Amino acid sequence: MRRRHIELGVGLGLLLGPLGYALTLQPEVIEVVRVEEAPVPAATNDECVAEVAPAEVAPEVAPAEVAPEPEVAPAPSLDLDGRLQLAFANEAGLVLSTDASLAWGTGRLRAHAGPGAHRAAKRADLGKVPEALWAQRGRTFDVYGASGKLCTARLGELSILAQHNGPSLFDVFHGQEAYEDGAYERFEQHPPSAKATRAKVWSSVGEDSAWLVAELVSDSSCEGALWARDAELPPPALLHRVDGPSPVIEQRIAAHEASPKLAELKVAYQEWLEQYPEERHDYPEWSTIEREHPATARAWLDESGAARLVELEFGYTEDGCGDFAETSISSVDLVTDGGFEPTPHETGPLAVFDADLDGQYELLYPERVESETPELSRGWSIYEEFYCPC
Question: What stretch of H or E contains 119?
Fold first, then answer.
């Protein structure tokens, strides 16, 4: 019995000992402080009411540095050096040069289109064609005809083209001196082959009388092409022809009929007839000339419809060889505020335009262009033996 009391006392001591120790420790006190805001006194009528700033003011922050905008380099100006303001265009394509060397060609002779009666061509050699001309192949061109722009084209293959004009192939092979003894008739009966003709044409053309031509490649038709211009250049100023009645045409004809030039021509014709009374019946009276070949005029208008040039033609020109009395008047005149200013140009241009935008017009004829700018005045010709019908 006593042993159980001892065990019970020891067990309680083990359980209650830690609790008693804990009670002897000082408790940790956490002090809570309550802060009350002081009331703001009400303002009286005699006092100014001051604006109360908020209790917390955000610290002033310096504005962030704004990076300057990067400088944009100006767009590079278009390099117009070497770009063609005007080039002939015809059946052969775009004519880059009319005085190309035959040595610029390579490969075999072949057929080629062109305005010449007889033609032979070779592919252009990159290593021989001047760099400035070869560089045109990487450019595009606006192509124009008599009525305006036809197409925009890039350049295809470049060729060296030799051409010959003449009344017959006989002249190419033999010249005019060999027409005797039926040689021409025998030649016509047995003409040379196309291959032999190309070889003869190539060899007969002068060393620097060939053309450098480029094929025109376009998504639209370039038929009727007369001239072309680098498409990167500003558009040219174009004129279009009007044949019908208009005030400016009527004014030009009236000025012609009242002109001293017409009066002088009539007197000179009458005097010429009196010098050859026996042949007078072969020539018309002046009244007949006026009735059968009256004055006609054509006007060239700009895009606004204003007349810039006027062509005038009167009378006729005798055909054939010999001396004849002058019976015709023709002129191309600038239209001015005070009337008409004569120019040195001939009537019958195929197109009129201002290619270099200098205010002066270029007149394009079948084989040449006339311009106030010397660099734009040029012509093209095709090799041929001299021929006289008389």
Answer: strand 118-124
